[in-house]
Amino acid sequence: PGLGRAAALGLAFGLAFATKMSVTTLLPGALVIAFHRNRTERTPLGPPRTALAGQLALAAVGAGLVAWAAYRFSFGRPDEIADPETLRYLVDHCAAGTTSRRLITAFLHVPMPAPQIADGMLVLCDTNAPGMSTSYLLGRITQNGFPLFFPFTLLVKTPLPFIALVTLGIRAAVRDTSPQRWRRLGPGLVALPVLVSVLSSRINIGVRHVLQMYPLLAIYVGPGLASLWHAARPRPGGALAVALGAWQLAIPALAAPDYLPWFNALAGRHPENLLLDSD
Asked: Which is the most buried residue in 52, 97, 205, 267, by most CB within 10 A?
């Protein structure tokens, strides 16, 4: 924590939000970690919560300014920059009741910084509305989404050695009893809300919507390798660590040049029976 890092956090999050709005799914877990006090110590790991709240507020303001700058500091009403007929269509499909439609319409009439963001959120709401996004999973087609789409997709689209090492790394973090335990659990606690947030999504058209989980989970690959290397039986554990590492490195070479349609072995010889479209 510190003013410099708070400013850097605001810059990073502002750029990330301007690139992909789904970065907001990282916030719940990140805030839990930021405000956590280690109960095994008399003093908090970081500054007092009031100071930390102030630094997070600074980061939030900085992120807002950076995102606004990405839209060239535009200012106006969202309903001014959208086609009226398109806007009515989006509002009608996004909101089910008359009251909700009136509230959204009133909100879109309010002048605000970067009104394009509000219009973009309306488009996202419309895409996620019932009957507006076609999904495919295990030979079935629906326009209401599959609750298990993303967990299943991650299972068959992620390299198996990566899954194994991440599992071992998380297991080691859970078993850790040192004062640094919550720091080691942090990446997983930030990644979990990302997955939870998409379980109810009707936009089931690609594992790319949860790509932000991968760098967080990749942090556990190192501890996973270390837990194998320092296992009670060092020779089998060390050999397995080397084998999993080599397998992971070999997968991109073997998949080339068809990286996007690649599936792991769990998908079998006909992965098209499991997933289509962007996957």
From this structure: 205
Tell me the C-alpha to C-alpha distance, in Å, between residue 49 and each of 7, 16, 59, 67, 151.
18, 26, 15, 26, 35
CA dihedral 257, 261, 262, 265 (to 10 degrees): -150
**What CA dihedral angle connects 65, 71, 76 and 77, to 10 degrees?**
-110
Segment 66-92 shows an average pLDDT of 92
What whole-number distance in Å separates Cα of residue 196 and Cα of residue 25?
9
Per residue in 244-262, pLDDT (tens digit) is 999 999 999 999 998 888 9
| DSSP calls for the chain | --HHHHHHHHHHHHHHHHH-GGGGGGHHHHHHHHH---TTSSS-SSS-HHHHHHHHHHHHHHHHHHHHHHTTT-EE-GGGSS-HHHHHHHHHHH--SHHHHHHHHHHHTS-EESHHHHHHHHHHHHHTSTTSS-EEETTEEESS--TTHHHHHHHHHS-HHHHHHHHHHHHHHHH--STTHHHHHHHHHHHHHHHHHHTT-S--S-GGGGTTHHHHHHTTHHHHHHHHHTSSSHHHHHHHHHHHHHHHHHHHHHHTT--TT---GGG-S-GGGT--TT-
- Give the C-alpha separation, 277 to 271, whole Å: 12
Place of tokens 């405000």: 35
Query: Could you report the per-residue pLDDT of 105-115, keeping only the tens digit for each?
Result: 999 999 999 99
Q: What are the tens digits of pLDDT across the range 126-165?
A: 888 888 889 999 999 998 999 999 999 999 999 999 999 9
